[in-house]
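One such given next:
>
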Amino acid sequence: MAQGAFGVDLDTARAWKTRGVESGKYWLYLVRQSVSLQVGAVLLLIYVAAAGAGRLLIPYDPLKTLIGHPFSPPSSAYWFGTDRVGADVFSRTIAATGLDLRITVVAVAVALISGTILGTMAGYFGGVLDVLSMRILEVVQAIPSLLLAMIIVQAVGPGERNVVAVLAFVGLPYYARLVRAEILSKRNWQFAEAARMVGNPPIRIAVRHLLPNSLGPVFAYASVNAAWVVLVTASLGFLGIGIEPGRAEWGSMISRGQPQIITGEWWISFFPGLAVLGLTAGFYLIGDGIRDVMDPRSRA
């Protein structure tokens, strides 16, 4: 049975279209097929809402010090307590949500788009482009991803744009190789041969027919890649080589409170760490849910 990009049989898709069902309801139908996708989507929406309404949620200036007594525990006045300079941990955690989420979305989008274009061209046309691009990507992938990101960020300097560019560059090879493999496996399928027989140019066959049927695994991987980007961003901030010093960022906040864990001031690192855990869990659940939608047999 023919399947679309998300593994849903095309007969079902055509039936929805024939009945005039709006695309929004069709996507809602897909979401309802997986509990993991639903839970992950809810978690992600919570973070998006926190990032969008951050200024309305935070009670204090996240960059201001001596708001309260240093090392004040969580209370009604300071929900997540204060750190060693008296800054409000709750305000800084919420303020960091927008920064970390923005870095994740932009880095994944750039890597996905550029990797998809490269993988489609290399997989369908082959030749020198395929050989040369794959060899270069293999060299990049031979270096551990976190180590490569640390080296490049250390070389180009801290900053949001630099971190986004580095994480997109490190993630690009995985998208390119995944799309290339999907295109190679499908370029001789019957629908592709039929498109050639009716006179479609190669670029149209690759982009209009092969690529849409190869995006399911790409989107599933994108959510896993997003979780990786969140963790690496926090790791770079923890090491002090990511975002500029002074800005509210989860990794730097965890590092800031690390020395106080053994003395009992656990809240300084705990709540930013919990924020990292929740966002990565949301992305992993979305990836698991997309896999369920692509392959209904996995839900058994």
Summary: Residues 89-125 form the longest helix (37 residues). Confidence is low (pLDDT under 50) at residues 1-21. The chain is about 70% helix and 0% strand.
